[in-house]
Amino acid sequence: MSAARGAGRPHPSWALPAVLFFGFFALVPMALAFGLSFTSWNGLGEPRPAGLANWHALLTDGRLTRSLGVTVALTVVSCAFQTTAALLLGVWAAGPQRNRAVLSAVFFVPFLLSSTAVSLLFYALLDPNFGIVPGDTLGTTSGAFLALVFVGGWQFIPFHTLIYQGGARQIPEVLYQAAAIDGAGRLRRFRSITLPQLRNTAATSLVLMVVGSLTYFETVLILTQGGPGTDTAILPYLMYEAGFKAYDFGYASAIASFLVVAATALSLLLVRVTGFGAMRSTREGM
Amino acid sequence: METYSRRWFLGAGTTALVSAAGLTACGSGGPGGSDGTLTAFVYGDDAAKVQAKAVSRFNASAAARETKGSLRLEKVPGAEYPAKLRTAMGSPNAPDVFFNWGGGSIKAYREAGQIVDLTGTIAGDPVLKNGFLPSVLAAGALGGREYGIPMRGMQPVILFYNKTLFAEHGLKPPATWDQLLDNNARLKKAGITPFALGGADIWPELMWLEYLVDRIGGPEVFDRVKNGDPAGWGDPAVLKAARTVRELVDDGAFGKGFSSVAYTNGGAPAALAKGKAAMHLMGSWEYSTQLGKFPDFARGHLGWCPFPEFDGGAGDVRNVVGNPTNYWSVNTRTRNKDTALAFLRTCASQTYARELIANGDVPATANADKLLDASPSPEFARFQYRLVREAPAFTLSWDQAVDPDAATPMLTEVNKLFVGKSSPERFVAALKALK
Fold first, then answer.
1. Which H or E run contains B395?
2. Closest CA to B306 of B321, B324, B327, B292
3. One domain, residues B148 and B163
4. pLDDT on residue B265
5. Are residues B214 and B227 part of one domain?
6. What is the pLDDT of residues B84-131, one digit of tens each?
7. Hey, are the CB atoms on A43 and B415 less than 8 Å from each other?
8. Where is the signal peptide (chain B) (predicted)?
9. Banded model confidence at residue A207, pLDDT cuts 50, 70, 90
10. Taking CA atoms, what residue in A is nearest to B193?
11. Which of B181, B413, B399 is nearest to B283 (CA)?
């Protein structure tokens, strides 16, 4: 029995290329960055051992807390904005009408553009003299923050729309027919059928969104450079600034290590909370 | 074992960004190719074609044969040149000769013993010693020692203005601060923003502080900071300059939305060219930017003048700030220093100066004055050349002059001051706290 089952599964060695690739390009550099975080190094000569100095500075100089606050705020607001928009658009796009198919294809275009190109585009659009947005958007904290949320949303909502569209198409038509017979209105059907049926879809989309916002970088680099002041300096930007502007690679590596730990913990937590790992079918008994 | 681990480290190093820069340092081999060809890193923008020509001419010259070497030019693209140079200098693929901005941009290389001290070479070689404008040569020095040979055009910061707009409103280019404020008031009344400012890039904001501190307190104020004393920021001139900046901002001298205007995407130059703003404090490259984007405006309406005097200020009105020029420096680990130095000497030649001029640059060579008639814009070139030649002091842009790890927080503080997230007093306190 067990032999038969083993024969049907791929041999563990099949995983070797992926494991090697991941190990070489992710684990090894990660370990080295962790090692660097205990040194003082400006990119020239040999790194000098610095003990816990970088970590001490990271935990006490206030930059991390400030940056963490911005990162969390940006993640939460982005997720709320993107989920709402993508859910509504996705469910709408899942309809069988021809025009919806065409429009969904058009909606998908922003996702095909590079983040850098999108950021440069909005950078020009935000110019108060020649752009479409009057006033000093990037000069105020809330303006710069909302600009980041909007630009990120503009680019990534199409992707999540696609996920929700796929999810909504999977919902058996009979459920809606039964509900209609029972006299359920459009809103009621959305709340009692569509939403619960999309639970797993939402979990997938949310995990991707959260992990995505933790690595959100180009948009900040191009649009705000962490400004005004340091009000939009999220963790990845702080890391870049410490490493490649100030050449303080020890401190930058400490941020990088922190980011790895935080992102891993967050993903694990999300998987736990959403039940992503032990995902149960939403159509049991159908 | 050591070789093995080094190679292994290097392989892994090409992967992650932060670690990549770290790992390459584990190599300790000398720079240069195996065939005796030296490598030169240059900032790979349009102007690099002048250096490319100089390299091929050098390779065919007697000097190259005598020193038994040749050069290969590597154009490092993009604005990330400093980061790429830093990574390469820590690796076995370090360049022998490298482009830099002098000042803070080479401080780390000097501390690591990776940059050749050229003081003796320059003093003992009349071609180099008398070849360049003294203020430009001095601006690239660190603590009185020379490490670089000027190799590109000068880039002083100049006050540009719209001549036509000035004529329409009966204005004159401001020579004193009172005239500047008077101009501002009249322009605002006419619904025109007095100054274009690309605040989204932050460094254009820095130019205002650089000039104000110079005009108020003289070049000595920043010199003290540049030479490693952060207490120099406590000079009253810095506070006065910061207050003046706040007054200008509050007065609407830069318009309301300047933090969303960028220089790099053409927003600020367009504001000047289209008459939305009347003046623009910017590096001399503004001229070629305007010529490229708004040729009619650049030829017919663009005016320029020095930064005005500040009443009661200690600084000479002839002083300039900006990027004196770019420099070639030599890596101490080069295999053929003779070839490298022979190549550096060619930068003082008339031929090289002529090529820079043909490209629209104004070279920092001592006798370029006569050659400037051949410039595509002789009038502007001569103004620029004389401005620098007559300048008692040429202050290197602050962000280039200080250590890179102090430059980033400094720019952040400048930005906070301009957007009103910090007061002049807090600005000074924050700068004093920089390393």
1. strand B394-396
2. B321
3. no
4. 86
5. yes
6. 999 899 888 899 999 999 888 898 899 999 999 999 999 999 999 999
7. no
8. 1-20
9. confident
10. A129
11. B399
For residue B162, what are the domain limits?
155-322+403-432
What are the angstrom distances between the C-alpha of B349 and each of B60, B106, B111, B141, B367? 16, 25, 31, 21, 10
Taking CA atoms, A113 is separated from A58, A216, B53, in Å, by 35, 15, 38
Residue B325 CA, chain-centre distance (Å), reads: 6
pLDDT digits (tens, 9 = 90+) for B309-346: 999 999 999 999 999 899 999 999 998 999 999 999 99
Among A2-16, A198-212, B164-178, B358-372, where is mean pLDDT lowest?
A: A2-16
Tokens of B114: 């990776």
Residue of A nearest to B271 (CA): A129
Instruction: Tell the residue number behind the tokens 């930005």, with chain if given.
Output: B415
Chain A contact for B257, CB < 8 A? yes
pLDDT at residue B321, rounded to an integer: 95
List the alpha helices (DSSP H) in B67-202: 81-89, 104-111, 119-123, 126-129, 134-139, 163-168, 177-189
| pLDDT, average across residues B220-235 | 92
> Given a cut of 70, is residue A4 above it in pLDDT?
no
Helices (H), B141-253: 163-168, 177-189, 203-217, 219-226, 236-250
**DSSP tag of B308:** P
CA distance B119 to chain A (A): 23
Stretch 108-127 of chain B: residues touching chain A, C-beta under 8 Å: 108-109, 111-112, 114
For A146, B126, B371, the CA distances from B150, given in Å and listed in that order, are 45, 15, 17
Domain count, chain B: 2
User: How far apart, in whole angstroms, are the C-alpha atoms of residue B160 and residue B178?
Assistant: 18
CATH of the domain at B230: 3.40.190.10
Q: Answer yes or no: do B252 and B304 share one domain.
A: yes
Give, as one character, the DSSP assignment of residue B192.
Answer: -
Query: What's the rounded Cα separation, in Å, for the pair B258 and B249?
Result: 9
Interchain contact, A135 vs B256, CB within 8 Å: yes
The reply to whether residue A227 touches residue B419, judged by beta carbons under 8 angstroms, is yes
| DSSP annotation string for A39-73 | EE--SSSPPEE-TTHHHHHHHHSSHHHHHHHHHHH
Q: Which domains does chain A have, with CATH numbers?
A: 48-274 (1.10.3720.10)
B156: tokens are: 């002083």
DSSP class per residue in A94-126? TS--HHHHHHHHHHHHHHHS-HHHHHHHHHHHT
pTM of the model: 0.85
Chain-centre distance for alpha carbon A64 = 20
